[in-house]
Structures are given as structure tokens and as C-alpha cells.
Amino acid sequence: MCYKGTHMLFQNEVQQTNSQAKALSRPFRALNQPSVDGCCCPQGKAGIMLLEIFLILGAIIIYFVVSKKKEETLAFKEGWWGKGQKPDTEEDRTIRPFKVETTEEELSDLFRRLDQARFTEPLEDSCFHYGINVACLRKVVSYWKNQFNWKKQVEVLNKYPHFKTKIQGIDIHFVHVKPPHLPEGQSAKPLLMVHGWPGSFYEFYKIIPLLTDPASHGLSSEHVFEVICPSIPGYGFSEAPHKKGFDSVSAASVFYELMLRLGFHEFYAQGGDCGWLICTNLAQIAPSHLKGLHLNLALVTNLGFTHLLSILLGRYFPGLFGFHEEDVRRMFPFLKKGLYKMLEESGYSHIQATRPDTVGCGLNDSPVGLAAYILEKFSVWTDPEFLNLEDGGLERKFNLDDLLTNIMIYWVSGCMVSSMRFYKENLHKGIGTQKHEKLTVQVPTGIASFPNEIMHIPQAWAQKKYTNIVSFHFMPRGGHFAALEEPELLAEDILQFVGKVEKEQLWTKKKK
């Protein structure tokens, strides 16, 4: 209901209430008239005062009942992102098998560029404080040229089934993995998993078997999943939009259409980084189709007065703001762990939200530049302490084959520029200005809060956006790339979250 309609309805209610008040107060007027000796009846005064209190309380209750907002949803964004004008013919909805392939020409070109790379000497004792340390980068490039086997990694990529289908004018790539076997009488639960930047669908390769075949990996087999991992349009092997304006709501609309096309009218969604935003928008677009939303990043963009107060006083009065001891440890002192950290880590975001093509063109032309730009994030976003290491701690949590496979997906698809543009499409209007930022999420939500995430969001803050949080866990270790770094921890949290939603029939209750 619009504000104007609510206001008029409230005025009518108040007018009716006033009329009732006048009618009800008539019997008391006689009691309130001066007696023969000029005094008022005390019982009459008390009665009128009581009546006025009841009328005021009644008016307040009526106001809040009438003005209570209906649960709003986000409009599905129907777009055309293909080249030129949208054709009059109906779009081909065929789902086509796809395989990652490579050629000798592709590899020859890569090796030529690697051989011709120019390196700048790092400052002494700079570690990763100025960005990637070039001494580390030289070692990575040497491994890339002499030991990394892209053809073998292509086989690894193709071990899961890949597909493409055209949605809103562009080809959408996705990996679709079904359980190898199911316990008798059990059906697989569809789970959409969405990556972020500078990641790819490959981030999920280690967690997929834990979800599609949990029993074989020592996990509970009570819930088994059918996993769908799409590439965000403009990332990896999904075609890049050819027109301006493709934002997270557009991506959520495309993935919603993808799930329906696959025959899934009820499903779960999981995401971190950009995947957090896309899956959140999906929950706002299709709350009746999304059984549950699981996130390993849950930012809040609309901060109010209570958030500011909690930043100022939460360290000293945590209970007053619903903070746990772990919240305090991760957030404070806020200038160092919050504001300064975000300023230090958000330079790339400002570039990509303003002039992505300028830097992107250079990265798309140089494999070494591309590797430097991406690897720095896999270092610092995994553990901020890795800033103090010359090798950035890259091989403490990952192996070079996995890191270079992710980089090669960007290189062979030539998607770096289009992936960076996604930031401009989402941020160029300003933070907190979009409709989806002002809408809440009512879908049952689970949040896995990893300690080395770029920004910690306490449950008390997240609850204002995600009003139906049924699971919030402080994870014991891990950072931004949770599915690749800590697949077991993330899988366990997803399994327990879905178990809670199913056991407590939160999905059924929500539909009612």
C-alpha cells in the first residue's frame, strides 16, 4: 500500500475514533458538570481520563495495523542483453552440452606473452604491502611456463557435465552435477551455487562431491544435493552482456529463469562475494520458489542510527546491541578492523566501479598482469596476515594448479574486462540507492561467518536485512574464498542449515 493511501486510511480511522469518543464521552459530561456546590465529580474525571487513554492506545494500534507494510518482492528483470535489437522470433531455449577445450595456438600465444613479460623489482622487505611481490610473481610465472599442465586441468574441468543455454539474448554457461547414487526413497535437493570476483565456477569443484555424495566423504547423507554452478554473465564461459545496465538483479533474473528451465520450481541458493548479492536478489524476486538462502558473506548496505551507535559503543556495551564476544573481537577497534581495512582493500572496487575498461584492457592483454591482479586477492582476502609474507601465503591454503586454473579461465575466455564491468553496473548509482537494498529478505537464511572475511557483519546487523535467519555460525577458520579454501567446513554448514529448514518445515510454514 502506498504512503498516501495509508495516510488517508489512518485519517479516516482517527475521524471515526474521534466520533466514537464524542459519543462515548456524552454520559460522562453529566458527571463532569459542576455540582450545586461548584465541585466536579472525581469519578467522572477518572472515567474520562481512562477513556482518553484507551482511545489513544486504540488509535496507535489501528495506525500500526493499517500502515504495516506488505511483504514486498523485487520485480523480475526482463532484459535483452544480446547484440543489436531483440528479434521477433522466440528465443531458443535448448540446453546444449558444452566442453572446455584448448588449442596449440592458444598455448603458443600464452607462452610467447609469458616469455616477453617485463618485471619490476620489488622494494626491499615490502612483502605484499604494495600489492603482489614481484619475486613471488616470478616464481608463479616460472611454474606456469614449465610445470603447469593446462591440458590436464581442462580434463579436470570437464570431469563434471557442462552446458550452455541462451537466456535474454546471451549464452549462459553452467555446471550441473547430479548425485552418483541416492538412498532409496530419497530425492536430491537442487542447489544453485554462485561464485564472485575474481573467482569462477571452478571455486566449487572441491565442495561439489561433498554435497552430491556426502556419505562417501564422512558427512551426513540425510540431505543430498543436485548442484548447479553457473558462470555469471561476463565471467568465464558465459557470454558477456552487450548492453549497459546488467547488474545483480539482472543476473538473479537470468539464474531464476535458468532454474525454471531446468525444471526446478523449488530450490536452495548459496553464494559469497558477488554471489551473495545475486542470491539475495533472487530471494527477493522469487521468495515462493527459494526454499532457503545460504551465504558465506552477508553485507548490509543500508546503515542507520543504531548501526552508528553500535560502532561507537558496541565495544563497551556489546549486550546492548546484540553483539557476541566474537563480534567484538572481529570488529574492534573499528577504525583499524573496519574503516581502515575497507579503505585499504577497496581500491580495486573503486576502479572497477568507475573506469573498468581502462585497467581491464591491460589485464586482458597481459597474462602476467592478469595473474598479479588476481593472485593478490587470493592472498590478502584469505588471511590479512599474509600481507607480511614475501610469497603472500598463496600456497598455504591453495595449490598453484588451482590458482592458475582459475586465472586460465579468465585468460582463455577473455572475460576480465566484462567481469570488472559488473562492479560499475552495480555501484555507479551509489550505495544504498537501489530498491533491492531497501527491501528485506524473508526467505529462511543461513550465514557462515568466516573469521578472515573482508568485512565482518554481526548477526544483529544482518537480522535487519535477513529477517528469518535460522542459522548463524562463527566459522573456526577461513577467509573470502570459502568453497575453495575450506570446502568441508562450508559443506557441513550448508548441510546443517538445510537440515534445520527441512526438519522445522520452515519452507512449508513460509508458503502458508
Assembly type of the shown chains? Answer: single chain
**Low-confidence residue ranges:** 1-40, 62-69
Sheet with the most strands, sense and barrel status: 9 strands, mixed
Whole-Å distance between the termini? 21 Å
Helix/strand-derived category reads alpha/beta
Q: Strand order across the biggest sheet? A: 1-2-3-5-4-6-7-8-9
**What is the tally of helical segments?**
22
| Secondary structure tally: strands | 9
Average pLDDT number: 89
Overall shape: globular
Helix content: 40-55%
Any idea what the radius of gyration is? 28 Å
Strand composition percent? 5-15%
Notes on the protein architecture:
- The chain has a 9-stranded mixed β-sheet with strand order 1-2-3-5-4-6-7-8-9, with helices on both faces.
- Mean pLDDT is 89; it is low at 1-40 and 62-69.
- It has helices at residues 3-32, 42-67, 104-115, 134-146, 150-157, 208-212, 248-261, 274-285, 305-313, 325-331, 334-345, 347-354, 356-365, 367-380, 394-397, 400-413, 416-427, 435-438, 459-465, 482-485, 487-503, 506-511, and strands spanning 95-98, 162-167, 170-177, 189-194, 225-230, 267-271, 290-295, 445-449, 469-474.
- The protein is an alpha/beta fold.
- Strand 8, helix 19 (459-465) and strand 9 (469-474) form a beta-alpha-beta unit.
- The protein starts with a helix and ends with a helix.
